[in-house]
Amino acid sequence: MLLDLYSTLLTRVEVRPVEYVAPVVIRPIRPDDEGKLGAFFRGLSDRSRHRRFHAVMNDLPADVLARFVRPDGCDEVALVAVMRRLGGESVIGEVRYAIIDGKTRKAEFAIAVADVAQGIGLGKRLLRGLMRRATENKVAVLYGDVLPENQAMLALAREFGFRQRRDPHDPRLLLVEKSLEAARLAV
Ligand SMILES: CC(C)(COP(=O)(O)OP(=O)(O)OC[C@H]1O[C@@H](n2cnc3c(N)ncnc32)[C@H](O)[C@@H]1OP(=O)(O)O)[C@@H](O)C(=O)NCCC(=O)NCCS
Known about the structure:
Blueprint: H1 2-13, E1 20-28, H2 34-43, H3 46-53, H4 62-68, E2 76-85, E3 88-101, E4 106-113, H5 122-136, E5 141-146, H6 151-159, E6 163-166, E7 174-179, H7 181-186
Parallel strand pairs: 4-5
Antiparallel strand pairs: 1-2, 2-3, 3-4, 5-7, 6-7
Bound molecules: coenzyme A (COA).
């Protein structure tokens, strides 16, 4: 499975295999990912960036980027999918949550996968990893805002059992949400 994913990626990014020495790894984000994460967001297509941020945004402000790579690991968690190659790593996917309400332990999540790597299972791996950590960290509800035309994200959320409804705060958006309480009790 991993090898399939790796060879698909190699084909899609049209690089010679010799340039890449290791497959895709999913790991917690680190402060030294700042430059790589910035490059990842800049490299997204306008459509993917708009779907991720719901806004026209070419570059993330430096203070936001600095915060993004320093989550506290409990109330904020971020994972990156990195492709290792000779001379370094590239970020090709990112997922995160942040607790929005400490009392209810509701957390908002967001995810993006590099355009060349979409549709081959990375989104699923990232979201699964995030949900596992959210459950361990006693997040009660995980939710995200999704543009109604974003069929890929809606289908991904559905696969993981998220319920979908109109966002009560913004009628232009859909809200996908999932209670993690049952999963936590089962751990
Ligand atoms: C949404 C997104 C994260 C999905 O990641 P991905 O790596 O492409 O998704 P996967 O390959 O893991 O696919 C997982 C499931 O999503 C659904 N899916 C993925 N791409 C799809 C598409 N183009 N149309 C319909 N469903 C799709 C399928 O149900 C798929 O499961 P399957 O392969 O078993 O059929 C990715 O498309 C993306 O980064 N989009 C831009 C940013 C964004 O929309 N972020 C969400 C806002 S929070």
